[in-house]
């Protein structure tokens, strides 16, 4: 994934990038529980980066891990 990301960013220097953390993803899951969907907002980014240490925290929760997968399923490059 790291090499793919490096290649992607090299070939798309104007790409809109977001870096998310565990707290943001937790917030998104709480919004989703209240029928407020952030996915449409996140679709404005070309790439969403999740640092490896954040990914470990995300995978401590099935809800957060499922939400991250839902982003991927909606065509968001994570």
What summary fits the major beta sheet? 2 strands, parallel
The helix count comes to 5
Class inferred from helices and paired strands: mainly alpha
Spell the H/E element sequence. HEHHEHH
Rg (CA only):
13 Å
Distance between the termini: 10 Å
> Residue ranges: pLDDT <50 for 5 or more in a row?
none
Helix content: 55-70%
Number of strands: 2
Rounded mean pLDDT is: 89
Strand content: 5-15%
Total number of distinct structural domains:
1
Shape: globular
Identify the strand order in the major beta sheet: 1-2
Q: What is the fold's blueprint, element by element?
A:
Elements: H1 2-11, E1 17-19, H2 22-33, H3 39-42, E2 47-49, H4 52-58, H5 62-73
Structure description:
By secondary structure, the chain is mainly alpha-helical. Helices cover 58% and strands 8% of the residues. It has a two-stranded parallel ribbon with strand order 1-2. Helix 2 (22-33) packs across helix 5 (62-73). The model has no long low-confidence stretch (mean pLDDT 89).
What's this entry about, in short?
With 78 residues, the chain is mainly alpha-helical. It has five helices and two strands; from the N terminus they run αβααβαα.
Question: What descriptors fit this protein?
Answer:
mainly alpha; 78 residues; 58% helix; single chain; 2 strands
